[in-house]
Amino acid sequence: MKRIKLWSLAALYACLLILTPGASLAAEKTYTNSLGMEFILIPAGSFTMGADKKFEDATDGETPQHLVSISQPFYLGAYEVTQAQWTAVMENNPNIFKGRSNPVEMVSWDDAQEFIKRLNQQEGHSRYRLPTEAEWEYAARAGTTGAYSFGDDKDSLGRYAWYLDNSGEQTHPVGQKQPNAWGLYDMHGNVWEWVQDDYGNYSSSSVTDPKGPSSGSFRVFRGGSWNNSARACRAAYRNLSLPGYRYGSIGFRLALSPE
User: Fold this and answer.
1) Cα–Cα dist 155/159, whole Å
2) 21 pLDDT exceeds 90?
3) What is the rounded (10 degree) CA torsion for 128, 131, 135, 139?
4) Which of 139, 145, 190, 192 lies at a CB distance of 3.0 to 4.6 Å from 250, suitable for a disulfide?
């Protein structure tokens, strides 16, 4: 019954958008592109970004908590980009763990940008992008405030994520675990996900649509992976690397800006 209620709220939101002057693609709750990638409409809203050190084993980089407003709805991939989707655009297969439905890995932030460039050209627009770090955490939390999208109980993580305790030290096909309340799969675990932002320290001030620092050496990736503990799969956990580095535990999922 809980899932039916959540989807009913999402349907109501979509209906409200239909009645809103100027609403176009954003009026659709879901969208599927030419590669069969499924996208979920993420509503505008506000949330508390970062970790609560009183309840989480958080790093200094996850604090201070601060209020973030996402002013516009956006689409986010229901799944991490798969190897089949990557190969269809890039015509190569860089992965360590081969599998058409497994998430792509061994791709750098720069590689993800090239994929986005080519896919935008293929579909004749410029709306595909990586999510910002704030958009990613907002979507991962899906209206919740705990360490994970399902609460604070790390013993429940195995129902939602492939991580160190259950992955068998490899990636797995996307979408096999339970999604969060907004219908997004593998936001915890399987592979880390590159986001758009350069890494920067948080401020306690409230912000709207933050995009990270204007420059920096390191890019952020989020969500934990198949070879990480439950702690690293928390919604607030942040990691970083140089934009040209590739690992067998990092992939990405796409955001899509409405028309």
Assistant:
1) 9
2) no
3) 80
4) 192
Could you tell me which residues come within 8 angstroms of residue 155 by beta carbon, excluding any fewer than 6 positions away? none
Higher pLDDT pick, 19 / 217: 217
User: Tokens 């409230």 label which residue?
Assistant: 206
Q: Which residues, 6+ apart, have CB-to-CB distance to 54 below 8 Å?
A: none
Q: How big, in percent rounded to 5, are the helix, strand and coil portions of the chain?
A: 25, 20, 55
Amino acid at 249: S
First to last CA, the chain: 33
Q: Which CATH architecture has domain 34-256?
A: Alpha-Beta Complex (3.90)
CA 225/CA 247 separation, integer angstroms: 11
**Which residue in 155, 149, 135, 3 sits closest to 68, CA to CA?**
135
pLDDT at 248 over 80: yes
